[in-house]
Structures are given as C-alpha cells and as structure tokens.
Specification:
The structure is a single chain. This protein is α/β, with parallel strands linked by helices. The chain has 2 domains: 331 residues, 3-Layer(aba) Sandwich (Alkaline Phosphatase, subunit A), CATH 3.40.720; 119 residues, no CATH class. 34% of the residues lie in helices and 15% in strands. The chain is built from 16 helices and 13 strands. The strands form 2 sheets. Strands 1, 2, 3, 4, 5, 6, 7, 8 and 9 form a 9-stranded mixed β-sheet that branches. A 4-stranded antiparallel β-sheet has the order 10-11-12-13, with helices on one face. Helix 6 runs parallel beside helix 8. The longest helix has 31 residues. The chain starts with a helix and ends in an 11-residue tail after the last helix. The relative contact order is 0.16.
C-alpha cells in the first residue's frame, strides 16, 4: 500500500509540473493592450489628417508614440466576424465565424488546422486575460474577467469614459496581484449607432437604460465643421446626419484616453505593447457592411516602448487585422501559431523591414443575422492602396437587391429627385453588378465602376487571379462558384 501511495504521489508531482510548465511565461512577459473603436470610418482621426477640430486627441497621441499604418484592412466589414478574425488571425471562412447568429453555418468546411484564439493562447502561457465589451464570436476564447453590461453596447457604462478608467484600473491591479502579465481587450462602443443625441439613442435608453443618461462628449460640432467621406455626397442633409457621428467618435476617443490613463498610472505602460484599429467602417451607405474601401479600411497603430520608433507613419504597407495576432506573439517572444492566415508585421513595425510583403488584402462578407437566404449576401474582394476588385455572387444565385445599412433615400430626400447622379448611385448600391473594379487613387469613394474599361483589363485580370488564389488556398466555400 505504501508503494502505491508513493507512485500516486509521484504522478501528482509529474502532472503538476506539466501544468506549471504550460502556464509558465516563456516569452518576455510583456503586457498586451488591444484597443478598438466600433464603426470608426478610416480618415476620420486627426492622426490620419482629419481636419475636424480636436476630434481624436488620444488616438493622435497614441499614433505619435508608435507606428501608424495608414492602409490597414479588416477581414469583414461587420463587427462580430471582424473581431473574431482579428482575435484568431484567421479568415472568417477558416474560423467558421462568418456572420452573426449561430456559428459556424451549415455549409462551413472545417479547416485542416484548428487554432486557438489569442486570449486562450495567452491564457495557456500564464496571462491574465480580460475583455471590456465586444469580444468577437470565437468559440475558443478564455477570459478571466469580462465586462459586458448589456447587449449591443446600449448600457450606461458602455460609452462612459469613467467606467473604462475604473474597469481598466481594477483589471490591471488584479493581474499585478497575481504576478501575471495581462492581456486586456478593451472596446469602447462609440461611434457605433445610436449616435449622440439622436432619436436612436433615445430609443435605446428607453428600452435598455432608462435610469441613466449617456455621458455627453465634451465637444460638440456644427455641420460646417464635419468632413464628408468620399463615398457620400456633400449635401446639407448628409452633413447634418454626420454631426452626431463625429460627436460619438470624440466620446469614443475620450474612452480610449481613460484606458490609457489607467495604464499609465499603473506603472505598466513601458512594459506593454498596444495595438489599435477599428472593427469596420462608418455606418453609412457604401461603407459598413460593404467591401468598398470605406467599409474595410482602417488605421492600425502599434506602440511598444524601446522597440518601435515614435511618430512613424507607414503609407507603403498593406496590413490586415489578422496580422495583429502573429505580430503580438512575435513581440512577446512566444511561439507562433501555425496554420493561420495572418502574417507578423513586427519587423516592419520595428524598422527592420521597409514594408510588409502583402500586395493586397482579401476581404469578404457572407451574412447578417444568420446564414438563411434572407440574410445571405456572399461577396469577396481584393483590395490594396491603388485598386479594389469586388465579386458579388449573390446577384446571380439569390437576388438582385441588397439592403443598405442606412435609409439613403431619407438622408438625401431633398436632392435625389433633382440629382440624376445621386439617383443612379442609390440604385447601384441596391442592385450591384456581379463584378466591380475601382481605381482608388482617382476614385476613393468607389463611384465609378471600371470593370468593363479596357484600359484596366490587365489589372483586373491580375486581381481576379489574386482572388482565385486566396479562395482556393484557404478552401473558401465560394470557390466552387468563381469562374471569372
């Protein structure tokens, strides 16, 4: 009996040591702060050149302390699958998180290699992991702490700078008590709709949050102060409609500032890598939920004191949101995750390479609520700094009309009957052709479809080949239908 007891005790020691080894930090022990804003359109931060007064002072300061990639791209122009992609380093059709609702869809083809989400991977290496608000729909995430007051970001704390400060402060303090480095994924909901002082905000308060007013941003704007993205017409109604967007963006920036303040006060700022981006474009026509440039492009900021030079602006590189996971792991000196579609940009961020190796970004859209036909709008795109090619298979296979994420007619009602260009634009956004091609250098708002322009025939052929390559190599379920 004594001999069995000794053997049993030895086995306990063995497996205990195995567990300790698994949870022992083998990298450099840096902390990770992963920041996002929700529905922030590219080009609307001061760091990117936006002239709206005092719009994003905290984003601007963060960019000045690290490197700003001006040509970042999300995988999907919609929050859930976009966030799942950035947290997994995988395309949506590889992770199975292709929309909202039940995941993965019935038609999903399981990838040859299954990989963990960033939170799970870091947790297994001994990190304390935490999320404030949206955390994507990865099925294999691991959060020690998760703050999410109400769904859809409609709670009082979801847009409150003071709440972000207190939660960040508490999480960092708790991780320091354990002696563990931390991974904090913090996501102010602004400037996601409902925007500031709109009927939508009033309705959200009445339904979800009647006891508290949403905090007002400390800066208000007039219609003359806002900037109009290239995908929208510069009309009085459009300007008026965008005023609350910029006020919501400023409030979101205040929330980011509160998070960064808590980090600085903790004494951990110099021991923390920070990344920042938006999850998709602004919630307007020809932006969010579309594969046009204003739907998928985002600034990407990376800060790492002592490793990344300050004030660097990289306008040459193509960086994808799925590249952030492998970049973070390389910065932490942890083993890379094999089988993902993302590539580390650490050497570019630290100045060892001039630009990334990517020639383009692959983006996609599949469905909103679920994979049923009513919500199913499969689209694929290849985009870079100069051109954008879009394939819309839903046009031939399902229906010819697509829902627009904002009532476009209401916004431009005073002008549409008198402006043939706007009327044609509205009709085009509803009824897309099977293929689209845009010269972004001359048409950043994607108004002029050049798919049949012989001048661009060679470039169109090149981008079609890129798309086919991506779909075939990654087992995209849409590959069976692509014959262009």
């Amino acid at each position: 009996m004594k001999r069995y007891a000794i053997v049993f005790f030895a086995l306990l020691l063995f497996f205990g040591c195995q567990s300790d080894n698994r949870n022992k930090i083998t990298g450099n022990g840096l902390n990770v702060l992963f920041l996002t804003l929700d529905d922030m359109g590219y080009g609307t931060s001061g760091a990117e050149g936006c002239k709206v007064p005092d719009i994003t002072p905290n984003i601007d300061a963060l960019a000045s302390q690290g490197i700003l990639f001006t040509h970042g791209y999300v995988s999907v122009p919609m929050c859930g699958p976009s966030r799942a992609a950035m947290l997994s380093g995988r395309y949506p059709h590889c992770s199975g998180i292709m929309g909202h609702g039940v995941q993965p869809p019935d038609f999903w083809e399981e990838p040859l290699v299954k990989t963990p989400a960033l939170s799970t991977y870091l947790h297994d290496f001994g990190y304390k992991t935490g999320a404030i608000l949206k955390n994507g729909r990865c099925g294999n995430q691991t959060w020690d702490v998760k703050y999410q007051e109400l769904p859809f970001g409609v709670g009082f704390h979801d847009r409150n700078p003071n709440s972000f400060y207190e939660r960040t402060k508490a999480f960092i303090a708790a991780s320091k008590e354990t002696g563990k480095p931390f991974f904090l994924y913090a996501n102010p909901i602004d400037p996601h709709r409902p925007w500031v002082n709109t009927q939508g905000e009033k309705n959200a308060r009445q339904q979800w949050n009647s006891l508290h007013e949403y905090p007002a941003p400390n800066r208000s704007y007039t219609s003359n102060e806002v900037e109009i993205p290239e995908c929208l017409p510069d009309l009085p109604d459009v300007r008026t409609n965008l005023v609350p967007y910029y006020e919501a963006l400023h409030r979101g920036d205040e929330c980011l500032g509160s998070i960064l303040k808590a980090l600085e006060e903790s004494g951990e700022a110099d021991n923390t890598i920070i990344v920042f981006l938006s999850d998709n474009g602004m919630a307007t026509p020809a932006a969010k939920n579309t594969l046009y440039q204003h739907g998928v492009r985002t600034p990407v900021i990376i800060k790492l004191p002592g490793k990344i030079k300050t004030g660097v602006v990289d306008e040459k590189s193509v960086v994808c949101a799925i590249d952030l996971l492998p970049t973070i792991l390389e910065a932490l000196q942890l083993p890379a995750i094999k089988g993902i579609e993302g590539y580390s940009v650490y050497d570019v961020a630290t100045g060892k390479k001039e630009k990334t190796d990517r020639e383009y970004a692959f983006t996609s859209f599949d469905y909103w609520g679920d994979s049923k036909e009513k919500d199913f709008y499969p689209q694929r795109s290849i985009i870079n700094k100069e051109f954008c090619y879009i394939w819309n298979p839903y046009v031939e296979r399902f229906k010819g009309e697509k829902r627009i994420p904002l009532n476009w007619v209401d916004v431009i009602a005073s002008s549409i009957s008198e402006n043939l260009k706007l009327a044609a634009r509205t009709e085009f956004l509803r009824k897309r052709p099977v293929e689209e091609f845009y010269d972004l250098s001359n048409d950043p708002g994607c108004w002029n479809n050049l798919i049949n322009d012989e001048q661009y025939a060679d470039k169109i052929k090149e981008f079609k080949a890129y798309l086919k390559k991506e779909m075939m190599q990654t087992n995209d379920p849409e590959r069976y239908y692509y014959n262009n």
